[in-house]
Amino acid sequence: MTTIKDIAEKAGVAKSTVSRYLNNGYISEEKRKKIDQIIAETGYRPNTFARSLKAQDTKLLGVIIPRLNSPSTNDVLKGIDTTARENGYQMLITNSDQSDERELENIEMLVKQKVAGMILFARKITPQLQAVLAEVPMPVLLLGQQLAGIHSIVHEDYQAGKNMAEYAVSAGHRRYLFVGVSENDYAVGVLRKKGFLDVLAQTPNVEVDFIETSFSRRETYQKALVFLKDQPATYIACATDNIAVAVLKAAHELGYQVPQDFSLNGFGGYDSTDYVYPTITTTQYPYVQLGIDAVLTIQKLTQGEEVPEVIELPNRLVVKQSTAKLDKQER
What we know:
Elements: H1 4-11, H2 15-22, H3 29-42, H4 48-52, E1 60-65, H5 71-86, E2 90-95, H6 100-112, E3 117-121, H7 127-133, E4 140-143, E5 151-155, H8 157-170, E6 175-180, H9 186-201, E7 207-212, H10 217-227, E8 235-238, H11 241-254, E9 263-265, E10 282-284, H12 287-302, E11 310-313, E12 316-318
Parallel strand pairs: 1-2, 1-3, 3-4, 4-5, 5-11, 6-7, 6-8, 8-9
Antiparallel strand pairs: 10-12
């Protein structure tokens, strides 16, 4: 079945240009003739999404978040809200509550609401999501994950993992435990771990174990009460700050001292890492800036401007009290 994306590729134009064509928006005569020709050759017929969208600038941005209790999401939303208001947009926020089905329902609802553009906090890229996004007639911007043909803004998660591991190795650690999440989440579950493990793979005399948990502090805390017992690692790397906070709580209850018994780090730069003892070494991500850049990028896309398909935002290592160098006799 021919899609808007197929028409755009054959005509050598952006998907947003085809969308404006289908909704009687302005495009150059040259592009209009080219799209006319492609549609005639393919026999393309607009789907229900395209038919529901009329040519108009609604000044309404649809935002789909994965859950309501995420500190990072809240910070990104601050950047989106401020920048949207400054540029005359209103937000329509929907929550998928970690459900793939609800995520697809939210996309359909936002299309029917005729939003000017859609910002999706992507948890994972499923085949169903990929198929739906190919048919969405307005610009879509993914945050945190990448998908070919769809614009996205991502963090340098691989580099964050590398930087953390290089710091840990320089502190003399050789026995590691990485507490991660499912690889369904490519950014957190794959890239952070891969960056960390790639450094360890190049370091002699290193031992590393891996335990999978979820983003839930409660679940991680309960698992940590088990896996921390007789744990030989001198360094425990957690894929998120929430996971690190949960491991720290379990460590306290089991009578361990951090960093005397083992060092501990998270990723994310959440405020919570400053309000526990010891404070937790982490990687700071520019969440508010991500929200600002998201609005500016989606605005350019709605106006038919060219922007890079993938934009990467840097992060920085923040060393706190939960990590320490090993004495030579401990190595």
